[in-house]
Amino acid sequence: VDFELTDEQRAFRQVVRDWVERECPKELARELEAREHEYPLELWDKMARAGFPALGVAAEYGGQGADMMTAVILQRELARSLAGLTWMWGISAFCAKAIWLHGSDALKSRILPELAAGRLRIAMAVTEPDGGTDILGALRTRAERRNGGWALTGRKMWSTGAMAAQYLLVLARSAPAAEKRSDGISMFLVPNPSAGLQVAPIPKLGMRALASCSIFLDEVPVPDELVVGTLHQGWHEIMTAIDAERILLAALCCGIIDGVLEDALQYTGQRHAFGRPVAQFQAVQHHVANIAMVQHQAELLTYRAAWLCEQGRPFGLEADIAKVVASDGAVRAADTGIQLLGGMGYSLETDMQRYWRDARLFQIGPLTNEVTRNMIAQRLGMPRSR
Ligand SMILES: Cc1cc2nc3c(=O)[nH]c(=O)nc-3n(C[C@H](O)[C@H](O)[C@H](O)COP(=O)(O)OP(=O)(O)OC[C@H]3O[C@@H](n4cnc5c(N)ncnc54)[C@H](O)[C@@H]3O)c2cc1C
Question: In angstroms, rounded to a whole number, what is the distance separating the alpha carbons of residues 335 and 346?
Fold first, then answer.
């Protein structure tokens, strides 16, 4: 199998790389991240003008309907500088897919062209305070019929980008008496702001440019036309929309590793000890070689999962493996990078600590690596983990 990028893909990578250098170099990324909970909308507008949000939207609705490999390239290149910022694109793209796959024609025509143009952002509000892994056991948010529409009441946790989003894609129990706990759940597009809706940022370790939020819903009115997909089948339908999420997350982690390696090579080449660049010390070279090995592993696994997805072949096992290897690898690489920079690795004036803080999330979300390992084992035929 040949995972070499085509000429067209290489040209696209260069376009994104140039854009990042020009619009969001690491110095700016560092500064933006310090503005906690304040999403840099001016930068999003530049992304929109570059046409990046259109990549996640089908061509018939004004998007570019990009293939998986193009999306992987975009995600990786953006994450080289600022992982936190780029995930806003990823989340909106998954919400776009949910609407495209399952929404009514009217909803698609209303929402998708706006998403493609970058005028709209959507955040995902699935996780609840009682748990994200056992989300079906924890799901308490309820949707009740009210005045010919719906009223949503409940609480969500960690909705990333909610403060910067004009809609929240909320999962709520619409038929509490359903026999199976995966049934009786619907997807709603909740306008933000709305009466009865409160969004509050949760202070967090990394990804700070992109606030993750607690959501409080108290009888929030949602009209029928903002129900996404088949009523009471929201759980099953949202799963089909986020099936490729692990591949894009792995690509994001590849981008973080790229940033780590770049900075490690640059710093160890110019930092001197005992009259020579520290890059001449064998122990330093081993650390750098370890980062490069992680980069190659993560890249190959991510590209293979993307390639299978593009071929229309099953890719679940490969996506799970890519996500775990790339996220564990990114954390390890950034940790090694901190060591290579010595005291400056611990300083907020360099990016290594930020790479580590950003990468650490992807061992936890959207699914923890423990649970993803369980899924890998089950795909190999092992019993369902208890
Ligand atoms: C910064 C951030 C951003 C996020 N963004 C979003 C978002 O935009 N939208 C959204 O809906 N959610 C979001 N999440 C939520 C995320 O998906 C959950 O945090 C994740 O699913 C884990 O759920 P939990 O935090 O409730 O951990 P828990 O489910 O409480 O897990 C606690 C521990 O138990 C382990 N565990 C649980 N069950 C098992 C099992 N069966 N086998 C082995 N180990 C198990 C877990 O691995 C973990 O170590 C975000 C989270 C964070 C931290």
Answer: 10
CA-nearest residue, atom 11 of ligand 1: 126
String of DSSP letters for 217-250: EEEEEE-GGGEESSTTBHHHHHHHHSTTHHHHHH
d(CA 136, CA 167): 23
| Cβ–Cβ < 8 Å for 58, 112 | yes
State if residue 370 touches ligand 1 by the CB under 6 angstroms criterion: yes
- What are the pLDDT digits (tens) for 212-253? 999 999 999 999 999 999 999 999 999 998 888 999 999 999
Centre of ligand 1 from the C-alpha of residue 158, in Å: 9
Ligand 1 probe mutation, 364, 367, 369, 378, most atoms within 8 A of CB: 364
- Ligand 1 geometric centre to CA of 153 (Å): 22
At 89-123, the pLDDT tens digits run: 889 889 999 999 999 999 999 999 999 999 999 99
Quote the crossing angle between the two packed helices 352-361 and 83-102, to the nearest 10°: 30
71 CA to centre of ligand 1 in angstroms? 25
**Nearest in space to 33 (alpha carbons), one of 212, 259, 208, 260:** 208
Q: Which tokens belong to 284?
A: 């330093």
Residue 369's Cβ-side half-sphere holds a number of Cα atoms within 13 Å equal to 17
CB distance 374 to ligand 1 below 6 Å: yes
Query: Is 197 in a helix, a strand, or coil?
Result: strand
- The alpha-helical segments, DSSP class H, found in 35-82 are 41-49, 68-79
In ligand 1, which atom is closest to the CA atom of 370? 47
Determine the distance separating the centroid of ligand 1 and the alpha carbon of 114, expressed in angstroms: 30
